[in-house]
Structure formats: C-alpha cells, structure tokens
Amino acid sequence: MARSWAAFAATAAALIASARGQSTEDKIASLEASVDELKASQVAELHGSGTTNPSKYLWEAMDLFENRAKLPVFMTYRGVGSGTGQGEFVGETNTPAFTPYNHFGSGDIPMSADNFAKLTAQSIEMMHVPFAMSAIAI
C-alpha cells in the first residue's frame, strides 16, 4: 500500500474536524472525494526476475506501462539468470516454503518438469507466456 494506516487516520481526523458545521450533503461529498483520493493512491506492484537476455526489453515495456497506466503502477525486473528467476518464483527454499520473491520468473528455457510438479503439488498454478524471441549463443 502506498499510504500507511497512520496517514489514513490523520486524513480521517482532519476530515472529521473540517466537517463541523457542514451540511450532510457537503460532508458526504467531502468523504466521497477522500475515498476517491485513497483509491487513487493504491499502487499495483509487479516484480519479476530471471534471464538477462530480454531485460532491456522488459524495463522499457514496464516504463511504458507505468507511464500510461490509469492507476498507479510500480514494476521492477532484475536480470539475475534464468535459474535464479525460476528459483525465486518457485520459492521452495523461501520462508515460508513456496512463497515466491516475485510475481513472475523469466527464462531462456521453460520451467522444468520438476519445478512444475513442486508447484502443482502445493496447489499453485502457473503458466508459460512466450513474450520474446531472440538468438542465444551456445
């Protein structure tokens, strides 16, 4: 959440204090405006990690999303390697187990059958989404 509960409480206290002497309609309008402001301050986050090959593409795409989104969005991507990205997404060694560090992992290779089986055994759904094609040197 972009706003803390303390900030929310301070805003609510200020609204209550400023509402003294207002008509019911003015109070409602003031509260509706505050609710709209609070909704707008919510930031949707999307974080990923994985292969370094498309990292510049992902950073550019994320910048475009952040700049063009109607709601506040914060997106990050760390180019750390395919295996690390998959490991952080699967989260088998994280605490608690199978809690991912990120929302997606990107790789030059598909998720291994072993990692896929581990996720499905934990009732965690995932899908592969091809998004870029490029040459890889061996």
Low-confidence stretches: none
Mean pLDDT over the residues: 81
Distance between the termini: 43 Å
Proportion of beta-strand residues: 5-15%
Q: Which sequence of strands runs across the widest sheet?
A: 2-1-3
The sequence of SSEs as H and E is HHEHEHEH
Quick one: biggest sheet?
3 strands, parallel
| Rg, alpha carbons | 22 Å
* Class derived from helix and strand content: alpha/beta
Your description of this structure?
With 138 residues, the chain is an alpha/beta fold. Helices cover 46% and strands 12% of the residues. The chain has a three-stranded parallel β-sheet, sandwiched between helices. Strand 1, helix 3 and strand 2 form a beta-alpha-beta unit. The longest helix is centred in the N-terminal third of the chain and has 17 residues, at 24-40. The N and C termini lie far apart (43 Å).
